[in-house]
């Protein structure tokens, strides 16, 4: 009889609906299933759920379900989305973020950590001035070029190639300088554009290339590593300000934890996914980075001339390349 009562009680508990979170928050991003973006966002969501004791649920929506990058930036301000994970598009929010569009300015993740430690107030101020709050940094990663025309060894090999870029002015200028025909386009539209020949190629980290299956519609991968793009765990200033101090601290802690997870995951994917791309039959070559660095000088000169405080930004970031 006692066993029957216990069994009945357990069955009743299992039949009860799970306790709903006190607060639900939406996190939208453009990453496909299997992408570094997805892993990053899921890690952050799990951390918030855990550290809040289940009181806050972060619901994640990938593959541009809640909008493309620029739409997500707008929805953050409207309060329709609580978090987003923009990357290159942040250079359209403020010229300050354009410093990360300078070719080869970030050497490795340790360098990025030093830049973050020394300059985060500058980036946070630029975000705040435009109605946003950076909860923390993650990454998109080191970018490489794929295309269907030819292997890219030097900048002149890009001559005439129609290359998709994100919606950032400095990325466009960079590839124009290299001789390509840059075509800004939302990430979610790239696969079809490659498949149909609307564009010849694109540039992204391995994690974005492989998860979006670009290897299925591209012949060549050229390892250029031309830009390292951080990603920003971003909310609006209003959304962040209305949280209690404890919740703000918890969100910030989770973003910091997620950055560590993301860096480790990204480093592993750089090895694993290059194999995936090669195994798909894509021809891979190491580009002449010295030639690209030489061809990039006018981009730095343009940024220094056109952006208020641009030269100081460049000098500060480059000065942090070596640890003291």
TrEMBL record:
Any stretches that span the bilayer, and where are they? none
Against Gene3D superfamilies, the record matches this protein to: Bacterial extracellular solute-binding protein, family 7
> Carries keyword Repeat?
no
- Which subcellular locations apply to this protein? Periplasm
Can you tell which superkingdom this protein's organism belongs to?
Answer: Bacteria
Read off the SUPFAM superfamilies from this record.
Periplasmic binding protein-like II
Signal peptide start-end: 1-20
A GO BP term here is:
transmembrane transport
Q: What UniProt keywords are attached to this protein's entry? A: Periplasm, Signal, Transport
The protein's matches in Pfam families, at most eight in alphabetical order, are given as:
DctP
Q: What GO cellular-component annotations does this UniProt entry give?
A: outer membrane-bounded periplasmic space
Classification via PANTHER family:
PTHR33376, SIALIC ACID-BINDING PERIPLASMIC PROTEIN SIAP (PTHR33376:SF4)
The record's annotation in NCBIfam families points to: dctP, TRAP_S1
Tell me the protein family, please: Belongs to the bacterial solute-binding protein 7 family.
- According to UniProt, the name of this protein is Sialic acid-binding periplasmic protein SiaP
User: Which species expresses this protein natively?
Assistant: Roseovarius gaetbuli
């Amino acid at each position: 009889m006692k066993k029957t009562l216990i069994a009945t009680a357990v069955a009743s508990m299992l039949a009860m609906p799970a306790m709903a979170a006190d607060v639900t928050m939406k996190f939208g991003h453009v990453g496909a299933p299997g992408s570094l973006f997805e892993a990053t966002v899921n890690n952050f969501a799990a951390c918030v759920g855990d550290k809040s004791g289940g009181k806050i649920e972060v619901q994640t929506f990938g593959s541009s379900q809640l909008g493309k990058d620029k739409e997500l930036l707008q929805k953050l301000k409207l309060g329709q989305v609580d978090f987003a994970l923009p990357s290159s598009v942040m250079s359209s929010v403020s010229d300050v973020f354009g410093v990360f569009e300078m070719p080869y300015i970030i050497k490795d993740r340790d360098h990025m950590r030093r830049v973050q430690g020394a300059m985060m107030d500058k980036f946070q101020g630029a975000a705040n001035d435009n109605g946003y709050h950076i909860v923390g940094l993650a990454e998109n990663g080191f970018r490489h070029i794929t295309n269907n025309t030819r292997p890219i060894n030097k900048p002149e090999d890009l001559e005439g190639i129609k290359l998709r870029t994100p919606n950032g002015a400095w990325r466009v200028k960079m590839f124009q300088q290299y001789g390509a025909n840059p075509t800004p386009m939302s990430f979610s539209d790239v696969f079809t554009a490659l498949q149909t020949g609307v564009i010849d190629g694109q540039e992204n980290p391995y994690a974005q290339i492989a998860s979006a299956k670009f290897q299925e519609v591209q012949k060549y991968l050229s390892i250029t590593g031309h830009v390292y793009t951080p990603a920003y765990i971003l909310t609006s200033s209003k959304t962040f300000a209305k949280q209690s101090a404890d919740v703000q601290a918890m969100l910030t802690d989770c973003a910091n934890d997620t950055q560590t997870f993301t860096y480790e995951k990204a480093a592993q994917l750089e090895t694993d996914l290059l194999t995936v791309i090669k195994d798909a039959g894509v021809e891979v070559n190491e580009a002449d980075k010295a030639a690209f660095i030489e061809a990039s000088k006018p981009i730095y000169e343009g940024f220094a001339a056109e952006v208020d405080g641009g030269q100081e930004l460049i000098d500060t970031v480059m000065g942090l390349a070596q640890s003291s």
